Structures are given as structure tokens and as C-alpha cells.
Amino acid sequence: SSMLMQVQSVRIETLHLRARCALAAARQDPAKANPWLRLAKADGRRLARENSLFAPPMAELTRAAVAVIEGRSRQGEEHLRRAIEGFDAAGMRQYAAAARRRLGALAADASLSEEALRAMEAEGIRDIDRWTRMLAPGFDTAPARLGPGS
Question: What's the pTM value of the predicted model, to 2 decimals?
């Protein structure tokens, strides 16, 4: 009734926050991950439809985490590359750095991970791991991986 979701910037931030929370919840308890993954996927689709410079890379980052959780690392890498490209174009340096860090870890590319660390350190971020988990959850090791149909 507040009509806040009619404001695009609020809607985009809310969708992305909800997707990030769903991804973190999916990683917390893999046995109960499916409803959280469905929510993250739905929010990713909604973000992708927004006519905005920064929503599509948020959608790609969300899709990347879902792919990794479902055991589709190669697709996760592709989504991360698109997310980085979009974040760079939008001037969203910290999101781009978090996505680069995730891609560096996933693709075993130490130079990409180092580049991301330097960017975060240059901004004065003290707990880089926590910052990365906040901006790009869902990539950390979980007790078990899920298959696409589970």
C-alpha cells in the first residue's frame, strides 16, 4: 500500500537483496534449498526485465550463484563474465570486484582474484571475505551440491 515498489530504484534494490538472501539461505541448508533457489531465479528474471543499467548485471550475478549451487560451474562462469561487464559499464566498482573475485575463484584465475582484492583494498574495505559474501552470496562452499533437478 506504500507504493514503494513502484519506485524503480527501490524495486531493483529490494529484488536483489531478496535474491541475495535466498542464495545465502540456499547455501545454509542444502536439503531445503529448492524453494530458496526458485525465489532467487524468479527475482533474477524480474531484475533482467528492468530497464536499468545496473539491474541486468545483478540478474547475471544472481544467475551465476544459482548455477554454481546447482553444480553448473561453467554456466556460472559465463554469467559472472556478463555480470562483470555490466557492472563495469554501470560504474559499480565494488559489485564488479566481488564478481571478479568469485570468477577468479571459480576459474582458478589468481590474477583476476588479485585484481579484485586490490580494488577492494583501495576502497578501504577491511573484511574482504565478508564484503564479498554480502555482495555476491551463494558461491561459498556448502555441505553438499544440488543437481539441477533436485
Answer: 0.89
Angle at 98 between CA 76 and CA 121, to 5 degrees: 155
Contacts of 59 (CB under 8 A, 6+ apart): 44, 45, 47, 48
Name which of 86, 81, 72 is nearest 37 in CA terms.
72
Return d(Cα 44, Cα 55) in angstroms, integer.
Answer: 9
Contact 146, 33 (CB under 8 A): yes
CA 144 vs CA 26, 131, 150: distances in Å? 11, 23, 12
End-to-end Cα distance, the chain? 37
pLDDT digits (tens, 9 = 90+) for 63-107: 999 999 999 999 999 999 999 999 999 999 999 999 999 999 999
* Residue 143, number of CB atoms within 10 A of its CB: 9
